[in-house]
Structures are given as C-alpha cells and as structure tokens.
Specification:
This protein has helices spanning about 5-15, 25, 50-60; strands spanning about 20, 40, 65-70, 70-75, 80. By secondary structure, the chain is an alpha+beta fold. It has one domain. The strands form 2 sheets. It has a 3-stranded antiparallel sheet with strand order 3-4-5, with helices on one face. A two-stranded antiparallel ribbon has the order 1-2.
C-alpha cells in the first residue's frame, strides 16, 4: 500500500485540499534537504470531530495514526508517510 496516496485519498474524500509543505516541497525549488517524511497541510481548522473521522478512516485501512500537538503522523507497512 502506498501510505501517502492512502492518506491523501482519505483527506480528499473528506473534502479537504492537501498541500505539500516542508523539505519535499522545497525540492521543487531546487533546495535539497534529506527527509524521511511527507509534510502535508490541509485547508481546514482542527476539530475533535475531524480528528476522529480521519483517525477512523485511516485505521480502517490498517494504518497507525498518532496525534500530537502539531498534527498527526501515519505509519503503514513501510514506515511513516
């Protein structure tokens, strides 16, 4: 399973636009920085209801979802998204 594609698909199904930010986005501008993860931003404010829906849908796909003060991380069979 492509963890990143699964996460983006779930976010889009919730009607959220997803933006690539961080080191991988910088690579588009020629700034190369090593990173293991994908930093994504969505166009919606945080709510407990949104958190619960996203967590449920991602876990239904067999993904491990962990929330923190800064957002959430998702881990699948091949590591973090």
């Amino acid at each position: 399973m492509d963890v990143l594609a699964a996460v983006v698909e779930v976010l889009n199904a919730e009607g959220l636009e997803v933006y690539l930010i961080g080191a991988r986005a910088m690579a588009f501008y020629g700034v190369v920085r090593e990173t293991r993860g994908w930093d994504l931003m969505i166009d919606a404010p945080y709510t407990p209801q949104l958190r619960d829906r996203l967590t449920r849908r991602l876990r239904e796909l067999g993904l491990d979802v962990r929330w923190s003060w800064w957002g959430f991380s998702v881990e699948g069979a091949h590591g973090f998204a």
